[in-house]
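re the bet — no i am not wrong, look at it urself. input seq straight from the record:
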Amino acid sequence: MLINVSLGKRTREHVKIYWDKIQDEETQKMFPFSIESLEESLKLFEKSLEDEASSYGRVIYHDDKYVGDIWCYCIDETDEKMAMLSIVIFEKTVWGQGIGSQAIKMFIKEIFDKYSIDKIGAFTYAYNDRSINLLEKSGFNRIETFVEDGIESIYLELSR
C-alpha cells in the first residue's frame, strides 16, 4: 500500500498547532515531553532557525494534512558526531498506518546528508511498544534501559 507522506518546513503556525495537539492526555502519556509552555516552544523554534542551531525539525504531512513533527536535537558535528531524534504523530486517527516509518526513513536520509554525524539516538518509554517497534523497524538498536523520574525508558541508536 502506497502511503502519501511528505516532510515540510516548520513555521510558527505549526508550532502553535503542535502545542495544542500534544496537550491530549493520551499523547502526553506516550511521549517524554520536556517543554512546559507554548512560549518556550516558540523560543526553541526561533532558535532552531539560527545558522549554528543544534536542532532541526520538519513537519509530517499525510495526504496533505499536518499530522506530526520530526526533529533532531543536540546535534553535535564535532565531538560525539551524533544527534538525538524525536518523532510525534499527534493525529491519533493515523497511528499504526506506517506514516512514522516513512517519515523517519525520509528524515534520517536528510539528516545524514545535511550534517556530519555518524549516529542518531532516540529515547522512548519502555511501555510505548509502537515507538519501540517504529525505531527498531527503522534500523535503531536497543542500547540500554534505564529509569528516569520513576519511568522505565529505553535508549536506541542508529549508526550510519
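see?? The two ends are 28 Å apart (CA to CA). told u. also The longest strand covers residues 65-76. so pay up
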